Fold:
Amino acid sequence: MPIRVLPDVLIDQIAAGEVVERPASVVKELVENSLDARAHRIEIDIERGGVGLIRVRDDGMGMAAEELPLALARHATSKIAALEDLDAVATLGFRGEALPAIASVSRLKLTSRVRGADRATEVSAEAGNRLDSRPAAHAEGTTVEVRDLFFNVPARRKFVRSDATEAGHVARLVERLALSRPDVAFRLRSGGRVVLDAQASPQEDWGLRVRTVVGEEFVSQALPVSHAAGPVSIEGWIGLPTASRAQADEQFWFVNGRSVRDRLLTNAARLAYRDVLYHGRYPAYVLHLTIDPRAVDVNAHPAKLEVRFRDARQVHDFVFRALERVLAQTRPGLSTAPTGLEESGPDPAALASSATNAPVGGRMPAAAGRGTTWDGRRELPLDRDAAESSRSIWALAAAVRDSAREGERAGAPDAPSGEGSEDALRRPLGHALGQLHGVYILAENEQGLVLVDMHAAHERVLYEQLKAQYGTNAPSQQLLEPIVVEVKAHDLDALLEHRAEWERAGFELGALGPTRVAVRRVPALVSGANVAELLRSVLEDLDQGVAAHHLEEPSDRFLATLACRTAVHAHRRLSLPEMDALLRRMEVIDRANQCNHGRPTWTFLTLSQLDRLFLRGR
Structure:
């Protein structure tokens, strides 16, 4: 077959294969044109999932009568005029492909009226063949009506899914567009039924739009993000680790107002959650990245869903650090998360049932007339006499001494200890009352009852301390006599291969033979532990990949495993001063609401919730 120039209609249909994947793709292109036309209100109507009808109506600037035929011509656009414009695109659309591509696979009618004009103009096209334009009655703005999508391309039509599936794709797309522009009102109707009705709100009140689209539950379990560095800024909300989801269906990214699905940004967010999220779960977030248009290429894909950053590494690090900084504040007294039970609901039986499966997290309700709450800005140390008299459990005793030293350096007065201490009651985690089955710590504060998972909490405390000391001449203890540990030959090889990681953590190791290793120095945090058992456990976990499901850095995996194996385990009996020491460390350690594996470390029941469980006051 000789080389030939393809007909314009065939060219448009080929372009439609890239631009018009399904009805949602048509809605995306048309709504983005409305946003570029500075519309304040956009109404979308679909029938049969968008295959039968897609109608997008806006109150934007409109198009002049002489421009309407050009709007259906290939590569005709008002957004760019030169190559320099392409390097700094500030509009959502710019390629001039969407309308002619849509018209080539549907029956399209375009009606528009310029602001201030005395009448509107209408132009139609069927399967890419344009018809004559004619006067029409229409308010200021533009309406695009697309009927019988893919009627002339049966091969494409058979790949369209059911009406419900396609309508769902359209709804999710409109939600994303609505989140990108809170100052624009959106209404979506499917078969005459209103699916989404989002009223316009001021740009600064983005939270109102988020509540409308994503839901009040998300906002109530999310942390605000606002960070800027030079020409780059990020704003929005990130869900608490305890509000994670089974799928990535509530992850919204916007770059300069454009909804994108970008791997670089998604990866940066995933890394920020790496050691606070339970494996197999996905975080929820709504984030808006603003960057100089010259630093981002939006011409990477015909559908404009992907972008390329000119300095991808810096953007990735900026996003990662911004989110990690916010998530580091997920500790008692600073972060927010749901308490164990809702404050309303009259059914005591349901309350008793839900209390056993109460959601966990870190929201500490403000004290209502019960005194000043702890503000979380610095640690109030334990009484040193109480610390020194505590039973000698190696790691927690060290935590007690660290608490006292840090308080002394900060110049804070020693806090009184004991059950009747008013200062202890005002702390987010209160003061310890006792242990439950050697697993949970029960504590009391001004608002109610606090339950702490002893192992999970101590694991997080140790992990954060190990990370802070890693590779910085961490305090360690030289052993009077080396401890000789028998290990398997392949375990010894693995240990020697990663000897640098052990040494940066404070260990000094050496091989005495093919199956023997000598431990000459250990970190101060594990002083007093059963070093032989600890070493074998860490080697076994690292060999099996335990704790590697969400931590990608080898050093993080090593430290997380070391902390897990070092932390106190179930049925270890603690004294009250030791429990209080752990609570105080949790109040100042970053990410204390989750352990290294993403499990929650504590939960909370208010006095009113407890009263309702026992029908008090009825």
